[in-house]
UniProtKB/TrEMBL annotation:
Keyword DNA-binding: no
Principal location class: membrane
Cellular localization per UniProt: Cell outer membrane
Protein name, as recorded: Outer membrane protein beta-barrel domain-containing protein
Amino acid sequence: MRRTAIIFLTVIPFLLTAQEIKQDIFIYDKKQMPISDINLYYIVSKDTIALKTDVHGKFTVQGKNNEVAKVVVNHHQYSYFEEEFKISPQPKSIFLEKVFSLDEITIKAKKQNISRAFGTTTLNIDDSPIFQNSTFKDAIMLIPEVNIVNENVKILGKNKTLYLINGRESNRNINDLLANQIEKIEVISNPSAKYQANYDSVINIVLKKNQNNGWYFNLNSNTYINRLTSYFNAVDVGVNLKKWSIESSVRYNFDNGLVFSNGWQNYQDKLEDYHTRFKVNKQYLETSTHINYNIGKNSNVGIDFSYGKYPKYNSISSSESKFNYFHTNENERIHSVSNSGVESQFINTSVYYNFSKEKNNLNMYVSYIRRNQDFNNNITSNRENIPLLNQNILSNNNSNTLIFNSDYEFKFNEKNKLDIGFRASNFKGKYHLNAIHFSTPLSSTLFDFTENIYSWYGIYKFNVQKLSFSTGLRYEYFNRDVIYNNAQKSKINQGNIFPSLYIGYKSENKNNALSFSYSKKIQRPNFNDITPFEYNVNYNTIFRGNPNLKNEFIHSVQMQYAYKSKLFLTTHYNYYQNYIEQVTTFENNNLVWFPTNYKVNNLGTSLMYNFSAVKNKLKLYNKLTVEYNENIGNVNDVSLNTSLWQWNLYLAQVYSINKKTGISLITNYYSPQLSDFYKIRQGLRTDIKLSTKLFKDRVEASVRINDVFNTYFNELKGNYNGFESFRYSDFSTRSIIFSLRYNFHSGKKVKSKPIHIDNSEEENRTNK
């Protein structure tokens, strides 16, 4: 009898937990009045059930006792509501807040700015103060995997990033895009076999689309005041006409910069102490047009066109060098001036077609890119008014690129998908370099350059319970044909296989996500690196090509963890075989720059935690990146064996004073960074921005002060085989920026579905 009682008492809790029970839930407004006939979604055990409240504001749910469920309410008269709870026999109450608008009813769904799914981290751009009148680089720093080192975007130690706009290659100046022109930024830090093998990371920028059936107009103006004044202006205009949408953008920049550098360089028999003044004046014009036509519910076709030109791009570098000879203790002074002018322009046209219906998705496009550049650089050096060097470098470069890309996805069912694709690219270039008054026979070169890459890939995705798998394989056939001076030829034909693997896990309540990924990539030497010419950069510095460069192969492994889209942790390891880098060596008392190969080990961890405080008025984005870099190789019989632990701290605090005004405080610090034989050190930088909205939110105005405490600096130290060097550069990052944005739109909003369904289980696609 006692044994029976024990068994009975043991089984009772299990039975209570396992049995199906019903729970009544009531929905009220803030005045505790029941809300009837309101549609809602009840989510339990991965099932989504549409329900409606009765006249008493009640609806009834069913499930296992203590099972986690979710209620989502997205009604146009009430604020968006979403809540997880445990099912129990006790009644539950929900209170909704009513929203009103005299002109129209606005539906707002609360979304996290940062989310991660299937190896893609997405930053959604909203009207938060941190995005108002911000640039692309300002925005992308909020993504956990991203850092900006020496003005270059780096993703977990990687350098070869593929930039896409709406899923397609573009030659547009990405860095000049403003955050309010962007809907979201997608970062793939370890791309699968779907993407070109010569890129080890991907950034896809999805531009904003007009949400109204009618016209819209957007004007951006930014004024930078530093040692010199710069202006950045952009105008966006577009129209939606039922099945047609046309969007155009025009940008014109006046960019001026002034940098001072001081340093010293140790040679075999002397020491150089130098002071340099570098001034640059750039004007940049860019225009782009996007036309889209919806053929039906399942397909659309469109064309992208962009044109960019530097009407003016001049730079002047002047330096004063004092040389002290060790043996004689004599001194001499050399004055050198380098005057450069660049004229460049590009044309980029893409035609695309997208089809999506039930189990089939097809995306294809054809792109044509044309670039031409004329470069004129004159270098003069004098010792006590005695000419030492008077060299003129003339360069004319023209290239044409044609790309065809197609991707097809077939869904066998919700758990099994096959993604296959084909890509072909043809690159043709003509390059002419002529160095006048330079004695070496390699100073003048004329060559034609042709590259063809044909690639096929296949990716199979499947789920096993809570695990997601993606296995991929890509084959690329590469052909290069170079003709030097109409005679000497260089041909390369090779095929390579590039595998990829992704394994993901997501907990039942979707709060925890863990993933593992591997990829193999390649970096082939570009034409600038392998052509056997050389020219002076200044009186004692020479650039030289290296025809013996080998292909660089990259093996990348990543482990990623995310908690509630608030905590992001990524651990990575990158192994670079035959890493391609431009190094500095000594030859006949001259500095020689040339590209070479060596081995690199890079491992690190990125940790980001985002949270809100003070009744959600204060948002904090905190990011810490720690990396270890090791360089191993031999450069001109000099051993390269350098290593360094380095870290970066990024803190962004955004405080919303009210619904229209906010303050952003951003702090960034980099520990010393490693680059072949050199270490680069930078100072702490803190920026502050005040932004507000005016005139019924049609105008956004902001004032930003960069480097508030004037603590930023850039310092370089090097040691090549005992020859030490030092350089301190003053970029004067302390500046004030005045920004103004005006936006106007007409027409009614395009109707959309009443609820946003979380698709975090699916891969964020880049074809738009």
